[in-house]
Design a protein that fits this description.
The protein is mainly α. The chain has 6 helices and 3 strands, in the order αβαβαβααα. Helix content is 37%, strand content 7%. The protein starts with 26 loop residues before the first helix and ends in a 20-residue tail after the last helix.
């Protein structure tokens, strides 16, 4: 079995949905900015060497619908021979895309794969579009349709995790992130992104 390695990696900065700097920035623009920089970081990689583009997306609908992975390939102006696919595994969609890319290389089905995730929570309706699950399945397996909020409450109740513990964990996470940002830990991985500034009301 072949060995799969990550040759280059980068990302945009994170925005504050739904009212941050990136709220009016389409996901294709963010994705293409990263892809362009990624090729440079990989030694000016020739797009003709790319065997597949695999993109994870939590909400592959609305502006992120119709196979975002393929949309990015076309938006980059890359040859039609380069395929693209979109993977949905909710919060782990991007990681799953990377895992699939590695598997393709390890199994000998590809030599060069670009994998990652693209998401604009600002451009998608809160909670996504209206869901119409099969009523029979909802009755049999309601857990499969439980949102993150209720799931968090169920986990907290089952494992006796109090609100104070949750707040402390959240605050500590933010403090670690702030310290890492101030120390410049993320600077090398973040790609500059040009955005249109919205006109201010008089």
């Amino acid at each position: 079995m072949k060995e799969a390695v990550i040759v280059a990696a980068c990302r945009t900065a994170a925005g504050r949905a739904p009212r941050g700097t990136l709220k009016d920035t389409r996901p294709e623009h963010m994705g293409c900015t990263v892809l362009g920089d990624l090729l440079k970081r990989a030694g000016d990689l020739d797009p003709m060497l790319i065997d597949d583009v695999i993109i994870g997306c939590t909400f592959p609908e609305s502006v992120q619908g119709l196979n975002l992975g393929r949309v990015l390939v076309m938006s980059m102006g890359w040859p039609d021979r380069i395929p693209g696919m979109t993977v949905n595994r909710f919060c782990s969609s991007g990681l799953q895309a990377i895992a699939i890319g590695a598997e393709k290389i390890m199994c000998g089905f590809a030599d060069v794969v670009i994998s990652g995730g693209v998401e604009s929570m600002s451009q998608i309706p809160m909670g996504g579009s209206m869901m119409y699950p099969n009523p029979a399945l909802v009755d049999m397996r309601p857990g499969g349709f439980t949102g993150m909020g209720l799931t968090a409450e169920n986990v907290a109740e089952r494992y006796n995790i109090g609100r104070d513990e949750q707040d402390e964990f959240g605050a500590r996470s933010q403090q670690k992130a702030e310290a890492a940002i101030k120390a410049g830990r993320f600077k090398s991985q973040i790609v500059p992104l040009t955005v249109k500034k919205q006109k201010q009301l008089p």
